[in-house]
Structures
1.
Amino acid sequence: MKKIALLLVGLLCASSLVWADVYQTQRQEWLKKAEAATPQLHETIIRPVSLVKSVADPNAYQDWRMENIPGLDAFYKTPLKRGDSYILDFGKHITGYYTFTLSTLERAQDAPVRIKFTFAEMPVELNTPFDPYPGGLGRAWLQDEIITLPYIDKPVTIERRLACRYVKIEVLGDSPGFQFAMSDTYFTALSSAPEVQIELAETTPAIIRDINRVSIETLRECMQTVYEDGPKRDQRLWIGDLYLESIANAQSFKQFDLTKRCLYLLAALAAEDGQLHANVFEKPTPHPQYGTICQDYSLLYNVALLEYLKSTGDKETALDLWPVVVNQIKLAANYIDETHLYNPQKKTPLWLFFDWRAGLNTYAPMQGLFVFALNKSYELAQLLGKEDEAKEWPALAKQIKKAARKQLYDQKKGYFVSGPDKQVSYMSQIWMILGSVISPAEGQKALKQVMAMPDAVYPGTPYAYHYLVEAMIQCEMKAEARQLLIDYWGGMVKKGADTFWEAYDPKDDFLSPYNFAPINSYCHAWSCTPIYFIQRYPEIFQK
Ligand code: RAM
């Protein structure tokens, strides 16, 4: 009997060891610190600048463009009748709350009024039927709302926060007994980004100035009480987006409280074994998207913390969050097999993201990113005087590097291949360069060759293009990096972008990771990094 009791106690202890919450003593404190760093949201009232109409145009992006039409002043006094339809242009991308007032013009309201609003970042959202909905993400992200008002003559604010430039108004229900008009309509726009004046050298060409402006707008819109990925869709904090937004913020708005808040929030909401969740929500109370763990994102957290420390000197925060850094490395290292390759099958396979390009093999990119993260995390250890806790990392990085060169690098051809089918992709070269697995000269050779191969898997999002520009700079392809920024982000500007898009393939206007272009986010965090490049490398981009 005694033996059985002891065995049970033993088992319980063992299981509690396995399931112990590694941050148990810190979570609450981290959450409080995240709360305390919440930035204030600045409000701006924005009214429409014009009425517009959609024009089908095969030469326009996604086949539609907007054309101004006169009559905005008259619109505020024009009786609205069932079947009427108007599109208001607010002149810029807005994130915030929408308010409108319907006012009686003649006689008295004798029936409810019913109006449909569609809020659109892009013309495609106003010219594609939403139903039957073919998209891969929740239908209700699409911003259409039907409102029935028993009483008008007072302002109405739609409860849900919206993100758009255009508002389409369709009158679904009126009454022969009275007349009304929309006498006022505006957005209360929100952002936690302060006002800034970004100076560019006089020599900066017009297209780079435009890219810079659109980039700033993109980041401003995504800066709310966390770095959101997209103010229209997802509206949450993802680690990959945070990393890029925070380095762009460090070169522009310098709103470092927001970065601090996000770093704490992610830490406080990590899984019990210490691994970070790939994304977290603020509302109704802070919580992670349970079960969504992404290995590349977890490791990028370490780099985001390093960059935060470098730009702020806030050692206290970095030391506080240091255990999270150690755990991300430890947990990822469990996937390194006896041949020193990252082997997703070694434990429960985790999501390896890297890009929304269908079919991308992520093995080689992961190998490179792990070395990158190890190098950066070691740099952080040095800045914090924590080398003793990180003493194995340089050797581990060396082994992984060696294995990558031996097993994934085609010496003769001079580029990396990934996975059982030996896929040739931009991403594999990019991450091996960023991880310094190959020298700048070798990196140049690899990139140049792969970029000349018509079948190589190329990036599908500005997220992936960001790392391509960074890799080019690292291997002395400065002119190419500049040209890529001009061609890729400038391509979006030329196609009418007010803010940069989540997915963009110059060869495919309708590319959507979710099978439906209208559900794409057209103001997306990870696309905002031109501001980072332009400010950080003026000798390349401001000439
Ligand atoms: C998109 C999100 C976010 C990104 C993830 C992986 O759906 O909007 O930007 O981090 O994918």
2.
Amino acid sequence: MHSTASDGELAPAALMAAVARAGVKVAALTDHDSVAALAEARAVAAELGVQLVNGVEISCRWDAHDIHVVGLGVDPESSALQAQLAAQMERRRQRAEQMAQRLAKLGFPDLLAAASDGAPQGIPARPHFARALVAAGVCRQEKDAFAKYLAQGKPAYVKTEWPGVDEAVAWIKASGGVAVLAHPHRYKMTRTRLDRLIRLFAEAGGQALEVVSSNQDAASVRQLAGFCTQYQLHASQGSDYHGPSMRWVQVGRMPALPAGCQPVWPLLGIQELSS
Ligand code: AMP
Ligand code: MN
């Protein structure tokens, strides 16, 4: 799940309240390149009876793809992790300026301030630019802003020198976490390429694949379960909840892992997710 510490819509406390309302007992907060929300979320989660898993979702680059590696159970106080995440935010700050320059060239000169408003540390991610493009009346919906301007290959997309997948795995493990390859089917790779990515991830010490994520068809789930068996990886579930305006993603409403998958949560000391 994501909060306002990255590109989510809900502040950490409101997010935990939504989790509790949905009857969810265990939730991982995995903001993009940030652990800033975890302290507030933890304080509220304890009161609400929600077991919070400290998480982070690290932006990586591999073979011309932007890849996300989730760390579950990381120590948010780790100074090494905090230093790496500070470097990630600096990359984000520079990328935001370059995106704003590209959008200015496309005829939208005043978007940086609007996109930065409410963004974590004043550093807008692409969804913040998408919201600003909608608010300015340039696009009708945020997904149109991605399709026309912000997605890879579109005119306002800026290639970023994110760390390698192996580096992110190393940071996560050094801070006590379990590394999970996020939503492997969203990278739109051929099977051969996905196989290479998963092999590299496993060789780097990655421990789990996100086998079930939102908007995923049954064939993809089966394929990912097969990769788990092939590379002896555990299986995770992620809703990737960003807030109520994503109507197709509901808190805690996800299909179960396929039979035969080894769930990732015992590695975090959690035996059962259901109450
Ligand atoms: P960023 O961290 O700035 O690269 O933004 C990544 C986030 O943008 C992802 O986590 C998604 O929530 C969102 N996103 C990426 N691609 C799309 C897309 N094509 N349509 C809508 N949202 C997207
Ligand atoms: Mn992601």
